[in-house]
Every structure is written in C-alpha cells, then in structure tokens.
Amino acid sequence: MQFNVEKSKSIFWVLMNTVLSLLIIFAVVGISVFYQATRGVEGQQRTFSVTGEAEVATVPDLATLSFSVVTEGIDSEKIQEENNKKINSVIVFVKGHDVEKEDVQTSGYNLNPKYNYDRQTGVSNIIGYTLSQNVTVKVRDLESVSAIVGGLPALGVNQISSPQFSIEDQDAAMEEARTEAIENAKEKAKSLAKKTGLRLGDVINVTESGGRYDYPMYYGGAGVDGDIMMETKAMSAPTIEPGTQDVRVYVTLTYEVK
Fold first, then answer.
1. Distance in angstroms (rounded) separating the CA atoms of residues 128 and 156
2. What is the pLDDT of residues 75-92, one digit of tens each?
3. How far apart are CA 239 and CA 220, in angstroms?
4. 104-113: long-range pairs with CB below 8 Å, 24+
5. What is the pLDDT of residue 231?
6. Where are the domains of the chain?
7. DSSP code for 128
8. Which residues contact 166 (CB under 8 A, 6 or more apart)?
9. Mean pLDDT confidence for 161-169
10. What is the C-alpha separation between 87 and 92, in angstroms, rounded?
11. Mean pLDDT across the chain, nearest whole number?
C-alpha cells in the first residue's frame, strides 16, 4: 500500500509539472502574438500622408505648322509637276524665315485617281487624279508664325491646319512644377501637424501623379481655322498668339509620426 501511495504522488507531480510547462508555453506564445498584433496596428497608425499640388504656366517656344498643296487634273504627270513647283516655292519661302532644313518634313505624298462609275456598263473609269503633298514645319521663332501662315496661300497652299504650340524642353517645366508641389505638400504637413498635435518624423514615401499639360487653342485672324481648304490668293497675315501652357503636378508625401 505504501508503494502505491508513493507511486501516485510521483505521477501527480509529473502531471502537474507538465501542465505548468504547457501553461507557460501558451502564455509566452499568446503574449508574443498579442505584441505582434498590437505592433502592427500601431505601425499603421504611425504614418501621415499629405498631397501637394502645383501649376506652372509656361510660354510655348515651338510652333508646329502642317499644310498641304492639293492639285487636281487629268494628266498625272502635269499635276505632279505643278504640285512639286508649288511645294518647292513654299519650302524656299519657309526657310527664308529662319527655319532650319531639319525642321522641314514632307509628311505626306498621295496621288489618288478619280473614278467615274458607269451604271449601265458597271465599269469604273479613271477621269483624273488628285495629288496632295503635306509638309510639317517646326518654327522656333514664334514671331515668324503669323508671317509664314499668312504667306502660304499666295504660293499655292490650299489646306492649312491650326498651329500647334508646345514646349520643347518639357522636363524643365515638369521639374519646376514638381519642386513647387513638394514645397506645397511640406507646408500642408507642417500646418496640419501643428493643428492636430502630431510630431512628424522623416518622409518615408513619395508618390507623384499628374504632369498634365493644358495646351492652348489657337485664336487668330480669319483664314486658319481647324483643317480647312483655302483659295490660292494673297491674304493678310493672321494674328496668332501662342498663349501659355499649364503644367500640373501632384506629389504625396508620407511621414513617419513620432
């Protein structure tokens, strides 16, 4: 009987030690999980983001002109000769306004037959041809744009598209807008932190969006409006203003909150 009692006590203490060990292990694991969860929630709350924006108005320094000489006739060789003569005169005229050779491009050359369909025979016959030569010119001296556009019709140009103004060095304008947007975001962050009692730490993330250019529309004298046909006759130079282009940039700064 004494042996059974001693044996029972020994088994009891073994079981107690095992239970205590398991309780300790569970407690440690539970505390660790709770700490990690709490730390994660706090980590999400310890950041602060603010978005700054900037708009920079820049004056275009490049104008792109697109125009065509369209000639119709029965003899394809004759209309080609006539069309080429006009185009060559136009190119000489354009280069006379300080336009470099590399800024003049033949952007289209199309010779198309004109057909007459005979309903009785069901046969289509060629009755003539239409030749269209398109030229694209980059004008860097914007003061010359009006004179060039105004002088084209007298040289045989009978189709002119609206001038397109742009900024050649867009990176510089973007950089200026980006710098102002960052400063705007910083000022907002300081103001909000002061009002809310937050203590800002380091910037831990930066994102940028925008970079949109608002291109100006042309508003000028008569004779150049969209994509229109024009008679070959002399006309006064239209008033063409390049206006400005607005560059918008948005920058979001994410701060660590102390």
1. 20
2. 999 999 999 999 999 999
3. 5
4. 104/135, 104/136, 104/137, 104/138, 105/135, 105/136, 105/137, 106/133, 106/134, 106/135, 107/66, 107/134, 107/135, 107/136, 108/68, 108/132, 108/133, 108/134, 109/133, 109/134, 110/134, 111/76, 111/80
5. 40
6. 2-45, 49-57+171-212+250-257, 61-167+220-240
7. E
8. 60, 62, 63, 64, 215, 245
9. 88
10. 9
11. 80
Q: Which bin fits 8, alpha (ψ -120 to 50), beta or left (φ > 0)?
A: alpha
What pLDDT is stored for residue 170 in this prediction? Answer: 83
- If DSSP codes are grouped into helix, strand and coil, which group holds residue 135? strand
Task: Report DSSP state, residue 61.
Answer: -
pLDDT for residue 58 is more than 50: yes
Q: 117-159: per-residue pLDDT in tens?
A: 888 787 888 899 999 999 999 999 999 999 999 999 999 999 9
| Position 126, amino acid | I
- 61-167+220-240 topology per CATH: Alpha-Beta Plaits (3.30.70)
From the centroid of its chain, how far is CA 10?
Answer: 82
